[in-house]
Design a protein that fits this description.
The complex is a heterodimer of chains A (262) and B (352). Chain A is mainly alpha-helical and 262 residues long. Chain A has 14 helices and no strands. Chain A has one domain: MetI-like fold. The longest helix of chain A has 34 residues, at 57-90. The chains are: A mainly alpha (262), B alpha+beta (352).
Chain lengths: 262, 352
């Protein structure tokens, strides 16, 4: 027997979906407009603004930078985050409580403050070039996701399995690689995706760390919008959405999206 | 090749709490010794130190002529069976069993052959390709057992291996563990809080409390001749009566307790009796009689055991449980005498 849904509940749910999806519909509409300014509903139908993205060299260059920064930054955050999450779970009793809070600070601190402090510390004080600063900044920005999401899958990991492996003659590091890692795989992939998406969409940290000649896509979008108010912005946004949807589709096909919500 | 396990003067601390106090025990080659005690007595700590997962603050662990004390866990060559099975969830039954052989860089065909042979022995060969999640608790523990045995370790250790299984399976499994251990002649250390399990499976049992071994003996000796009051209570001597010797006549001593108790006990039965001692017995070690020599008591609740009646009795020395003949059921409130059955009683030193 199908479950009856109360009309008010149904209407409320529809309203929530409308609220969530309407802006996206507007952007998609605007990106297809034939006008030289942003408008909705679109007037005329054209893909010229999509074509325009690829003609603007800055978009191509910053998109590549964004991908590089997202991959390397997320990778670095996992290199720090996985061992940290492991230690926080394995030695939960021995380690002080505040230590796990330390790893979520980048989320707790206002992003603009975090960005500015990164500028002061790694770019100005340490004198690191722009590209490594961006990677390091993004790695720190997404570190909370690595630690938390990997930590969540480690929380349900039975550490006696690790002891079983060692008792059978497997050294500690090899045990981690062959026994621990395969069992927290889903958590690691989930952390990677969350961190990757966060990194690729970030503005507030990047805005402080980008410098002469090197910028990320979101920063370029902002810069472009300040100069031209044409539908290119909408087209880029649609492309970014498609990339995200594409990533999600791959995840759904290979692992199932439910593991993201576990 | 069987070797002995020697644990010498082991001490361990968690922070400032001392959880093992100068503990020594040795397990002869091929012997199965159980560490038995309630939770927090230090039995698991001992096992974890031998396994190499914990460092002792003092003492040594030797396996044959190898000193294990400072060796890392993976270099100790010990087969371990865990309470929660600890199977590798991402590996098949066969790969779980072959894991230890793989660490020993044994070639794949040989590895598979040996793992399959071991699975055959525990009756799980048809399930070789399953994942652990598709097994029942009993099957999981058989896989864990096969995984520990296949590496042919000089020492096997069991950490409450049957606690998660239901009662019937537990009995089947302990017989199976005993058979496999006997057949291989592997020196074994077995940790449990279950007295019946420890007694049924072990050559010798060490009863532990507060980080010490109170008595290490065969199950038969522990059951009949506990060495001290703690062990006596642990193995079911529920009546402990403090007594004083008031007269000696050859082998027979006269002993008294508060409330008019006067008993004649033969040192031929009990061994030398000191002036101050405790008479310990289970319920069937004291017979409820209408009169005669014994401990004066007022009978309380009577329960029917099938082979006897059991009474809760009030005495000057406190509440005592004793059995009475089926032929003569007595009512609550009756004044009676509780007479010791010498073979069922033992004499202990008083506790401090």
């Amino acid at each position: 027997m199908p479950t009856r849904i109360h009309p008010v509940l149904g209407a409320f749910a529809a309203l929530v979906f409308l609220f969530l999806l309407a802006p996206l519909v507007i952007i998609i509409g605007a990106s297809l407009s034939d006008t030289t300014y942003l408008t909705f509903p679109p007037q005329g139908l054209s893909l010229r603004w999509f074509a325009n993205i690829f003609q603007i060299e800055a978009f191509r260059r910053t998109a590549i930078t964004s991908l590089q920064v997202a991959f390397l930054g997320t990778g670095l955050s996992l290199l720090i985050g996985i061992p940290a999450a492991y230690a926080l779970n394995r030695y939960r009793v021995e380690l002080p409580r505040w230590l796990s809070t330390l790893f979520v600070l980048p989320i707790l601190v206002p992003e603009i403050v975090f960005g500015f402090s990164l500028l002061k510390s790694i770019t100005i004080a340490a004198g690191l070039p722009v590209f490594p600063s961006l990677i390091l900044g993004h790695a720190l920005l997404v570190l909370p996701y690595s630690v938390r999401v990997v930590g969540a899958s480690l929380a349900s990991f039975d550490f006696s399995i690790e002891e079983a492996a060692m008792s059978l003659g497997c050294p500690p590091l090899k045990t981690f690689m062959t026994v621990v890692l395969p069992n927290i795989q889903a958590g690691v992939i989930a952390a990677f995706i969350l961190a990757f998406i966060t990194s690729i969409n970030d503005v507030s940290v990047s805005v402080f760390l980008t410098g002469p000649g090197i910028s990320t896509l979101p920063i370029q979008i902002l810069a472009h919008m300040e100069q031209f108010f044409d539908p290119t912005i909408a087209s880029v946004s649609v492309l970014l959405m498609l990339v995200t949807v594409g990533v999600m589709a791959i995840v759904e096909a290979t692992l199932g999206l439910t593991f993201l919500t576990k | 090749m069987t070797v002995s396990l020697t644990i010498e003067n082991l001490s361990a601390h968690y922070g400032t709490t001392q959880v093992l106090k100068d503990l020594s025990i040795s397990v002869a080659a091929g012997e199965l010794v159980s560490l038995l005690g309630s939770s927090g007595c230090g039995k698991t700590t001992t096992l974890r130190i031998v396994a190499g997962f914990l460092q002792p603050t003092a003492g040594r662990v030797r396996l044959g002529d190898r000193d294990l004390t400072t060796l890392p866990a993976h270099a100790r060559d010990i087969g371990l069976v865990f309470q929660n099975y600890a199977l590798f969830p991402h590996l098949t039954v066969l790969d779980n069993v072959a894991f230890g052989l793989k660490q020993r860089t044994i070639a794949k065909p040989d590895r598979v052959k040996r793992a399959m042979a071991m699975l055959e022995r525990v009756g799980l060969a048809p399930l070789a390709d399953r994942l652990p999640s598709a097994l029942s608790g009993g099957q999981k523990q058989r896989v864990a057992l096969a995984r520990a045995l296949v590496i042919e370790p000089p020492l096997l250790m069991f950490d409450e291996p049957l606690s998660n299984l239901d009662a019937k399976l537990r009995i089947d499994m302990r017989v199976e563990i005993r058979q496999l251990q006997r057949a291989n002649g592997t020196t074994s250390l077995y940790v449990t809080h279950d007295q019946e399990e420890a007694f049924s499976i072990s050559d010798r049992v060490a009863i532990m409390n507060a980080g010490r071994i109170l008595q290490l003996d065969t199950p038969e000796m522990l059951y009949r001749k506990p060495a001290n009051a703690f062990v006596a209570r642990f193995v079911g001597f529920e009546n402990l009566i403090r007594m004083k010797v008031t007269g000696r006549d050859g082998a027979v001593v006269t002993a008294e307790a508060i409330g008019g108790t006067k008993l004649h006990l033969s040192q031929d039965v009990f061994g030398a009796i000191k002036d101050d001692f405790v008479l310990a017995s289970r319920a069937d070690g004291l017979t409820v009689r209408r009169d005669g020599e014994g401990i004066p008591a007022t009978l309380g609740t009577r329960t029917y055991l099938g082979r006897a009646y059991q009474y809760k009795c009030q005495t000057a020395a406190g509440e005592i449980t004793a059995n009475g003949a089926l032929s003569d059921p007595l009512e609550a409130g009756t004044r009676a005498m509780l007479t010791p059955v010498p073979e069922q009683c033992c004499i202990l030193d008083p506790e401090d």
